[in-house]
Amino acid sequence: MFDNLCPEDTMVLANAIALSLYPGKTADELNVLGNLIVAVGSLLLTAAAQKQALSSQQTNAGASMDCTPSDNAASDNMSSDNSSNGNSTESSTENCTENSTKNSSKGLQ
Hints:
The protein is mainly alpha-helical and 109 residues long. The protein contains 4 helices and 2 strands. The longest helix is centred in the middle third of the chain and has 35 residues.
């Protein structure tokens, strides 16, 4: 989408967006809007980093990475791993697992 924009054009676009959102807003409204935009940006950067890491692992390991819904066995493995090292985190509804016969018997990584 933004592949063809040079850095200067990207800065001009960001400036134009900011200037179009600024008029008529109070300082509090601008703070909320700015924080929302920063939060969205942070989430996009986190998703991009995770996608890049999975792609790198896939390239290095030669296996495919899929996010699949966790089953009870996978949740039990994650719970026992967390309780053994003192961490207590809730299991998520999705866990990324490597689709290879070598790792399928190990559960989550």
